[in-house]
Description:
With 244 residues, this protein is mainly α. Among the domains are: 1-88, Orthogonal Bundle (Helix Hairpins), CATH 1.10.287; 153-205. Helix content is 58%, strand content 0%. The chain contains twelve helices and no strands. Helix 5 runs antiparallel to helix 6. It is globular.
Amino acid sequence: MSPRQEVELLDACRILFPTAEINRKFLGYIQPEGLKNAYRNRAWECHPDACDEIVGKTERVELFRRSVEAYKLLNSFLKERKPDLPLRHARPQRKPAFHRPVPVKRPENEQYYIGPKPSIELKLGLYLYYSGVVSYQSVVQALIWQRSLRPPLGDFACQWGWLNEKDVSAILASTEIVGSFGERAIALGLLTQSQLNLILLHQRSRQQPIGNYFIEQNLLTELTLRHHLRELDKHNKQVRDSRP
C-alpha cells in the first residue's frame, strides 16, 4: 500500500466513523458488516432529504457525496485485503497464537454455553457466548455498558433543532406515558416517527463497539477479538448463503 493510498483510506474512515480513533490499526480491525452499518448510519444522518430547511442542505449534499465515495473506497479495500496482512511499517507477526482464544479464569456461578452454534445470524456478543468464549452474564453487562455510553436522544434532537430544553423537560416529566424518551416525545407530538428513527440511527453510530468491553474486562485480547470478528463474518455469511 502506498502512503497516498493509506492517507485516502484513513480519510475515508474519518468520514464514516466520525467518533472512532482512526489509525493504521483501525484499517485492520474494520469488517464488511461494520462498514455497511457505518455507511447506512452516515447516509441517514447527512442525506439531504433529512433536512427540512434550505439552510445547511448544500453542506449535507457534499457530506453525502463524500460518504458514498468513502464507502466505495473502503469496500474495495476490504475486498482486496488479505487476512492478517500487515499494513505499511507494521511489525511482522509470527504465525499466530491468537487463532485460539486466550484462556481466562472463568468466574464461578456464571453461565457458559456448551453446544453447536444456532443457524441464525448473530451479533458479536451472542456469537462470543455461543462460541463458549464469554458467559451470558458478561454479554448482558456488555450491553448495559454499551447503552450507558450512548449520548442522550434529547441532545441530538436539540442539536438538530427538533426539540428545545423546555421540550426535553416536558418529555422527562411525562411519567404517566409508558415508554422510552422517544416514544413519549411522539405521544406528546414533539417528534415524528421519522425524526426518531434518524436520531436512533445517529445515536447507535456514536456508541462504543461492544467488543471494547470484553477487552477492557480482560476477557479477550485485541488480536483474539479480531479473530472472532472474522469467524463471526464467516458464520453470518454461511447462514445467509444457506437460505432458500
